[in-house]
Amino acid sequence: MDRRITITSSNEETITFGRELGARLQAPCVVTLVGELGAGKTTLAKGLIHGIVGVAAETVTSPTFVMMNLYQKNDKEAYHFDLYRMKHPDEFVWQGFLDYFSRGGISIIEWSERIAPLLPEERIEIELFHQECSDQRKICVKCHERML
Ligand code: ADP
Ligand code: MG
């Protein structure tokens, strides 16, 4: 297991970190984003999606109400989930979301705890933490060595 810790000092830095990481990811894969409200999950997802698909970070919006937004350019795809409002893992299955794990693109999942039993064991887990300084975040990336 590979663990990397990074501290960012602004939302721009978190987007840049996400962009660089996103560009290195090999599809298909699942990336989980864990952290409390305001920890920076959506901000990091903006960077990741820019790095994966090539769309501008500003065009990425939180899928809080629709639960999933799909980004697609050329042959690259990212599926951005926000499962905050999901009450049971079965809902994820009923919505047909499980199919995205085998569609060939990269799934990015905020509030992945909501579907813990459905997550593939091979995944990239990213945890974000508020720090004492209000614009700092600690970002911990955990995955198998061969995935990054
Ligand atoms: P979440 O999706 O985890 O609820 P968001 O990404 O929507 O969090 O919000 C994070 C908030 O924190 C944004 O308002 C962002 O501007 C702010 N912020 C301040 N510093 C940082 C940082 N270093 N990284 C990410 N976001 C930051
Ligand atoms: Mg969010």
Protein architecture, described:
The structure is a single chain. It contains three helices and seven strands. Strand 6 (124-130) and strand 7 form a beta hairpin. The model has no long low-confidence stretch (mean pLDDT 96). Helix 1 (11-24) packs across helix 2 (41-53). The protein has helices spanning 11-24, 41-53, 89-94, and strands spanning 2-8, 29-34, 68-73, 76-82, 106-110, 124-130, 137-143. It has one domain (2-147): P-loop containing nucleotide triphosphate hydrolases (Rossmann fold, 3-Layer(aba) Sandwich). The protein starts with a strand and ends in a 5-residue tail after the last strand. The longest helix has 14 residues, at 11-24. It has 148 residues and is of the alpha/beta class. It binds adenosine-5'-diphosphate and magnesium ion. Magnesium ion (MG) binds at residues 41-42, 62, 82, 110.
Pick out its properties:
single chain, 148 residues, alpha/beta, Rossmann fold, 7-stranded mixed β-sheet, 3 helices, binds adenosine-5'-diphosphate, binds magnesium ion
Secondary-structure topology with pairs:
Blueprint: E1 2-8, H1 11-24, E2 29-34, H2 41-53, E3 68-73, E4 76-82, H3 89-94, E5 106-110, E6 124-130, E7 137-143
The structure holds adenosine-5'-diphosphate and magnesium ion.
